[in-house]
Amino acid sequence: MRYLSTRGHADRKRFCEILLEGLAPDGGLYLPESYPRVDAAALTRLRQVWQSQGYAALAFEILSLYIDDIPAEDLKALCQKTYTAQVFGTREIVPLKPLQSAGNAKPDVYLEALSNGPTLAFKDMAMQLLGNLFEYELARRGDELNIFGATSGDTGSAAEYAMRGKKGVRVFMTSPYGRMSPFQQAQMFSLLDENIHNIAIEGVFDDCQDLVKAVSNDLAFKRQYKIGTVNSINWARLLAQVVYYFAGYFQATTANDQKVSFTVPSGNFGNVCAGHVARMMGLPIERLVVATNENDVLDEFFRTGVYRVRGTADTHETSSPSMDISKASNFERFVFDLLERDASKTQAIFGEGLSREGFFDLSADPRFAKAASFYGFESGKSTHADRLKTIQQVFEQYGVMVDTHTADGIKVAKEHLNPAVPMIVLETALPIKFAATLVEALGREPNRPAQFEGIEQLPKRVMVMNADVAQIKAYIAAHCD
Ligand SMILES: *Cc1c(COP(=O)(O)O)cnc(C)c1O
Predict the structure, then answer these.
(1) Which of 60-74, 216-230, 262-276 has the lowest mean pLDDT?
(2) Which end of the chain is more exposed for a tag (fewer CB within 10 A), N or C?
(3) Which helix (H) or strand (E) segment is 281 a member of?
(4) Which of 347, 304, 307 is nearest to 326 (CA)?
(5) How sure is the predictor about 48, in pLDDT bands with cuts at 50, 70 and 90?
(6) Residue 265: CB within 6 Å of ligand 1?
(7) 429-449 per-position pLDDT tens digit
């Protein structure tokens, strides 16, 4: 298996070469040269693997289709080490929960629980694997990596919990001082591992991102201190997410002639892009429904064919903050497929068009219609009022508490139901992470998993700094040996 860039660069790379890289050299995103097809016999075999050996074995089977430069025994061991009941809370790892009304023969929708990992958001599903892959590959090369990133919440803590105590890896994570929820701050700042550095910046999230850009643009510094990232464009993260689409499908169906649909709360289009890959492999997915919040760039595209990125000033701060995205960093992967892998067109609209015009328009391109008709995409959006109402309804009707992002998914899913096809909504976080909005909706605190009792009182390790590039570089340099 070789990987190519969506913008047409001539290089073809193997999995471990792109594992530690971000963008391709031409600014594109990596994708496999072609998607391995899972035919009926292979799907039957994968269902058996899932049923008899569970999630880690299924992950190994699917990853093996894309990774041919890690020996099979090693890859298998990495999957077994990552997906354990101890880390993810249940033997199923991603159990399916039916939301069924009294008197109905069938569930209205299913929730696929992806948020029982260490940081209670679905990002753990990929990040935990990435931590183990990084440690493995860095040891093999005798190299090290310093991850420098910016977070407004979920990504940073998932990365830190995945990399803590890992050999060869350090994490320097900036976050806007005082702006994450108290629970999120406690989660991150209570990590005392030596290789984890929390840097709270006097400023907003964009100030943190500007620091990351400034450091990344200093190529000499970047090389000297082996600076890398773990952002959502990393192909390994996306690949890890493909696995739970298969696991969801096997739980919702009994035979391979049945189809399911998925609704995915979306921001950077990483999660739902993994669904697209699963569907391209041949998993019987009827619809992939993209659910956005008030930041509706993706919904607008699927409705109109116009992709119009928003500036920082036009990005709403919402009560589903992990979807407050005005430019979906993974979207280029899908558009590349939609354009029948026309790299020069992809380069023209994402490379030049977007930076010059701030939008592109595919409404007149005959290929746009295939987003729905061939690739199965639909979309919808949800607002703060929808979110509160959905959280209340789901609690009253099914006795289940959902977080704000999952609520956006359920709201949109219910607008796209087909009685013949089960609808699976991906549960992207647990309610305790967004307690303030749950209290607003239900008048009570959400349940707190036992291992998080009292985390706000734990000792914290965090540096508070100004948004000053020189100061940050000095801090990194001082902590790199
Ligand atoms: C990151 C995140 C999302 C958005 O996922 P994308 O892959 O960026 O589309 C949705 N919900 C939660 C809770 C998240 O942390």
Answers:
(1) 216-230
(2) C
(3) helix 270-281
(4) 307
(5) very high
(6) yes
(7) 999 999 999 999 999 999 898
Q: Write down the domain spans for the chain.
A: 96-118+236-442
The pLDDT mean for the chain works out to 95
Other CB atoms within 10 Å distance of the CB of residue 44? 13
Exactly one of 13, 76, 123, 381 is catalytic; name it. 123
SS3 content of the chain, % helix, strand, coil (to 5): 45, 15, 35
Residue nearest to atom 8 of ligand 1 (CA): 268
Query: Quick check: CB of 319 below 6 Å from ligand 1?
Result: no
Structure pTM?
0.96
Query: Is 234's pLDDT higher than 80?
Result: yes
Token look-up 């075999």 returns 45
- 45 residue type, one letter: R
Task: Please provide the DSSP assignment of 60-125 as one string.
Answer: HHHHHTT--SS-HHHHHHHHHHHS-HHHHSSSSSS-EEEE--TT-SS-SEEEEE---STTSBTHHH
- What are the C-alpha distances in Å from 468 to residues 202, 204, 474, 476? 10, 13, 10, 13
The pLDDT of 49-58, averaged and rounded, is: 98
Chain centroid, CA 435 distance in Å: 21
Topology annotation, domain 96-118+236-442 = Rossmann fold (3.40.50)
β-pair partners for 170 = 146
Q: Is 433 a catalytic residue?
A: no
| Chain center to CA of 174 | 19
pLDDT (0 to 100) of residue 216: 83
How many Å lie between the centroid of ligand 1 and the Cα of residue 477?
32
Top mutation candidate among 188, 266, 315 for ligand 1, by most atoms within 8 Å of CB: 266
Residue 166 confidence (pLDDT): 96
Q: Could you give the CA distance from residue 63 to residue 216 in angstroms, rounded to a whole number?
A: 30
pLDDT tens for residues 328-349?
A: 989 999 999 999 999 999 999 9
Handedness of CA 377, 382, 386, 387 (dihedral sign): positive
Secondary element (H or E) of residue 434? none
